[in-house]
């Protein structure tokens, strides 16, 4: 790649950070190249390139942001290009920053909403990076609460000297002002009704997602965030209203990430989750922040990053504390179990499942449970057991728990029931019950065809890969005939 002409001033900031990180010039170049590959960039830097940077030459394009991210990963603190003595540029990792202030958080997440709403296809192709989980989760755990989130009314403009005072507004003008407020222009005063509307919208989109998959209404949700939620966040509100507003925005942002995850836009989903985590901190809602981390842990499990999934679940447990309601504690321990299951760690997985089971058994009627944890019930716990036992190849136990989950799970959770049905089919296959396995999987394939969920399709494909050793058996041929029209 071409570089700008060398500057005369050596880059002492970069030199100091290279020494702190313990990099050689060749080692830094190699890491920048590797990070570039994660984003589809063929950079081919070498030790000579780093020498030029140290002499004051400025790398072009997104390279300064990539170099900053290399140091962020190594040193465990967020660094920008400017911290390295390099020119600022649009960060290639935009959206993974854990903002220093609520205002900065609104700027970052608002930028994500606008880009995503504009149907930027490249945004949905951004790579997921497990290293991008470390700094935000740590910053959430050890970060100080935000002292203030309230936004004051804009200053009143004083008439110029000698200008007559404005006449009283007539009714038609008041109506026009109310219409302007309804459009949430600058200075719009956020009300409790606005926040109630955000909550209702969240419930609507959650129901659609559970029943039909994330792809059905994801884009509408993002547009709602851009056109309705962002103007509220940039409006005016007191401290209590502001905390509630940030909490509602965190919930909708997590849901945007969840629906992005469901259509396999994993890098974008990761960015939404990080920003939801930051908005939850602005809300002062520690338990919800833990829930966001659990969501991130589940994505890591799905992508095969078991160690990171376990770490995220443990950070969530530490952040939520021991006073969390039993259902919340069960949810946190079950997330850890899933990570251990992916890693094949039988004892650790079993211990986490036992903790989850005991926590849920401690729940009492009338307990105050956050709305987002109310769906973690016996059906969900049985589902977690089923998945873990499947991953550990304990197929008899997996079948028992999957059957129980299907018996208990409400029909509205169609996608979850589909996942559980595939887990049951996999368990039946592992037990040698080929006929029943193929019948269950054919039902799941028919459901997946009616949804807009890449995860649903991938569950079915995973089962089909397991069928390969039995491809000539009659039940498998029947299965393929039944599902041929769904391809």
UniProtKB/TrEMBL annotation:
<protein>
    <submittedName>
        <fullName>Regulator</fullName>
    </submittedName>
</protein>
<feature type="region of interest" description="Disordered">
    <location>
        <begin position="151"/>
        <end position="186"/>
    </location>
</feature>
């Amino acid at each position: 790649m071409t570089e700008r002409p060398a500057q005369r001033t050596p880059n002492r900031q970069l030199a100091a950070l290279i020494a702190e990180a313990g990099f050689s010039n060749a080692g830094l170049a190699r890491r920048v190249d590797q990070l570039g590959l994660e984003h589809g960039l063929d950079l081919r830097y070498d030790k000579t390139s780093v020498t030029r940077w140290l002499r004051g030459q400025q790398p072009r394009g997104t390279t300064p942001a990539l170099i900053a991210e290399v140091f962020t990963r190594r040193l465990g603190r967020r660094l920008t290009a400017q911290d390295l003595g390099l020119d600022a540029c649009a960060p290639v990792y935009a959206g993974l920053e854990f903002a220093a202030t609520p205002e900065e958080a609104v700027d970052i997440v608002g930028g994500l909403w606008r880009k995503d709403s504009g149907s930027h296809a490249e945004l949905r192709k951004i790579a997921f990076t497990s290293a991008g989980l470390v700094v935000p989760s740590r910053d959430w755990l050890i970060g100080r609460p935000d002292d203030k989130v309230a936004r004051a009314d804009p200053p009143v403009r004083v008439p110029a000297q000698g200008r007559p005072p404005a006449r009283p507004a007539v009714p038609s003008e008041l109506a026009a002002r109310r219409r302007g407020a309804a459009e949430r222009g600058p200075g719009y005063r956020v009300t409790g009704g606005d926040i109630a509307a955000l909550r209702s919208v969240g419930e609507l989109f959650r129901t659609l997602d559970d029943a039909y998959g994330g792809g059905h209404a994801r884009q509408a949700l993002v547009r709602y965030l851009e056109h309705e939620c962002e103007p509220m966040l940039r409006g005016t509100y007191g401290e209590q209203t502001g905390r509630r507003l940030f909490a509602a925005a965190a919930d909708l942002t997590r849901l945007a990430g969840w629906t992005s995850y469901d259509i396999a836009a994993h890098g974008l989903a990761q960015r939404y989750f990080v920003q939801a985590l930051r908005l939850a901190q602005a809300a002062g809602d520690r338990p919800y922040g833990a829930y966001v981390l659990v969501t991130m842990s589940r994505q890591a499990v799905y992508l095969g990053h078991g160690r990171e999934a376990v770490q995220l679940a443990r950070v969530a447990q530490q952040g939520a504390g021991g006073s969390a309601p039993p259902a919340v504690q069960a949810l946190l321990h079950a997330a850890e179990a899933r990570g251990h299951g992916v890693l094949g760690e039988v004892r650790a997985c079993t211990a986490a499942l036992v903790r989850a089971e005991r926590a849920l058994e401690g729940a009492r009627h009338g307990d105050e449970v956050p709305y987002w944890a109310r769906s973690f019930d016996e059906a969900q716990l049985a589902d977690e057991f089923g998945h873990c036992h499947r991953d550990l190849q304990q197929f008899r136990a997996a079948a028992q728990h999957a059957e129980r989950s299907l018996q208990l799970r409400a029909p509205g959770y169609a996608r979850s029931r589909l996942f559980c049905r595939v887990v049951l089919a996999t368990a039946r296959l592992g037990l040698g019950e080929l006929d029943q396995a193929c019948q269950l999987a054919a039902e799941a394939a028919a459901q997946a065809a009616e949804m807009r969920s890449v995860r649903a399709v991938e569950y079915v494909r995973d089962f089909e890969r397991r069928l390969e050793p039995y491809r000539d058996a009659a039940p498998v041929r029947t299965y393929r005939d039944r599902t041929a029209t769904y391809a």
